[in-house]
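Practice record 12: protein with nicotinamide-adenine-dinucleotide.
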Amino acid sequence: MITCNGLYLYNFTIVLNSLKNKRMGYIEPAPIKDEGNPFEAMMSRFHIASQILGLDDELYNVLKSPAKQVIVSLPITMDDGSIRVFDGYRVIHSNILGPSKGGIRFDPGVSIDEVKALAAWMTWKCAVVDIPYGGAKGGVQCNPREMSSGEMERLMRAYTLAMTEIFGPDRDIPAPDMGTGPREMAWLMDEFSRSRGMTINSVVTGKPLVLGGSLGRTEATGRGVMVSALAAMEKLKINPYRATCAVQGFGNVGSFAALLMAERGVKIVAISDISGAYYNENGIAIENAIDYRNGNNGSLEGFSGAELIEGNELLELEVDVLIPAAMEDVITSRNAESIKARLIVEGANGPTSAKADTIINNKGIMVAPDILANAGGVTVSYFEWVQNRLGYKWTGERVNRRSDRIMKDAFDHVYSTSQEYDISMRIAAYVVAIDKVAKTYKYRGGF
Ligand code: NAD
């Protein structure tokens, strides 16, 4: 029961505005071009969902602006004795739901704008799966492929030291992203712990198991993709044992998604990685493909269990389910019309441009959007933090059972919202997320 006047008014306005929008069947188009720009892609969906919710201008402005942006210069001694200065960023988009959560990207292309977009994405992702975190992201402009282990360690430690007042188990909890992994998270945990004079493993997730990493984390994102795919297939009345699926990207997310889907009866007819796309109409033996990749420097190049096809062809195959799990902006206004799958489950972040959304929706293709479908990873990161704080270790079975339940509940919530407002699953996911964050702001107040 809502008693506070302001809150009552807010909810009343939401209901009125959403009814108005629904009756008129009209949503103002976002005044933004998105293709190729992650921040604008995110903002155009945010804009539509905000209109459906009838979000007032003040709150709209609060939610689109990051809470904190930190830029640091990190001077590092390189192996040849020279000193190089690297730019490091941490953006906290929101910490209204709890400590902020988000990975650290080491990449030459990192910019403050990219980090801002990714931080906001994390806020919506955590809110969709209803875990008590805000969103953040970090980055360092560097090229990990050209750096030695010693240089990486010095850089990671310098970054951590620069962020020691930002990070904390109750403040901001980093994790790996592109260019960083368990090794870097171990250095981060160690440096942060030294600064506090005690071991604090809950400051970061994605750690090696021996340092308090969680069982089930490696496969968590692919597993969440599988749970979302099966839930969506149930709604579309697609029988997994008669279904075909194509998976773009055969790294962490794509290979586990393919394996777990295959284990549930789905025939994976195509997989791909940077070396090319591989097609077999009788189904690809995914375990063999993983073994091959593991023994072939991480690449599918030369894989003989399927025929080589054009990379783009994979996206346009006549399959029931398409899982883009490689990179952003692969389904755009240029190829959306040619997509034949009945269901797209987004393992990657931002694989579909906002312009392509309209085409995909008009074709009647269901999309389990990124902020829902790939949230299994952050969910198990949350479990890692919970276990660290409990000083206890869960079994892999418990981790999987609990993350499956969270993913399924989130799917059902987004699905029922899409039915209620007659909107796409993607916009419904944003509506669920923004509504939760907006309500929290309204209850907490304090502007
Ligand atoms: P990864 O580096 O393990 O794998 C990426 C895969 O994509 C590799 O097989 C690579 O060869 C392939 N690839 C790259 N470019 C390609 C192209 N043009 N065509 C076909 N394949 C191509 O990365 P990952 O961790 O699996 O992440 C994949 C996507 O999922 C990214 O968008 C990432 O942001 C997103 N994601 C990952 C996680 C996670 O827990 N790892 C969580 C959420 C979202």
